Fold this protein.
Amino acid sequence: MQYRAFVVEDSDVHATLAELLLQEAGFEVTIWRSIRQAWQWFEHDQTTQPMLGLLDIKLPDPSFPRLEGTVLAAAISDAVAQGRHAPVQLVAISSELNPQREWAALATGCSAVLSKPLTPLKAQWLAELITQPVPALSDEISAVAFRQGQLDVLNLLELQQRPAPRLWNIDDVRNLLAVLTTGFHVGEQGRQAGIGLQHEFGGATAAHVALRSCLPLLESDQARLLGLLLHGVAQQTIAGRLGLGRRKLESQIEQLLQQLAILLSQR
């Protein structure tokens, strides 16, 4: 059985060496060069089999050079402990080991700490380690507190890097629908604004998908109205199908736009 391994290492030399030696030991290997890249990948990984994580415990993140790999170890250990991911056998590796750094690695869920460089013997030992149960997280009070502190650091960095959500208004939704459908008429300025909003979604298809994802969250009448609009049905035709007068339809469309503005702001 071939196990998966991911290596978080910023050094080209050590990353290449780890990849070659782990492949020879029977692993399928993925290399990540920063804590943030590795965590974003891990959050979406759907692996069901146990895997190995080899972390440079003193990994400088490009944006946060003082950040150490223990924040990633804490986050991964927490995800495994809460059942959000299959078991991961974490091992720290560093060329600058000291008692404090070793304790930090073990406190955040690493099974072992190795010194650089990785060797064929160490790689073979890792191949044996992956078959062993992942050890439980330490209940030592100081270790628990340290691990939680590292999680807080990572969460803070995630918030700092996340763009502020767009607050949509009715005009935004109308402008977007004007470029996606034939049922709305806005001026050139509004149309240009709608094109910009469409680009923010990544194109017309992605914008359509985003609006369709709102359908289950709308009341049945509003969901039907939005469905017709997204299918390119003209407002005059919609009024006939729904048996509505022009003013009544306009009122319902305004209510729909207002609700869509709320839902899109919550994305």
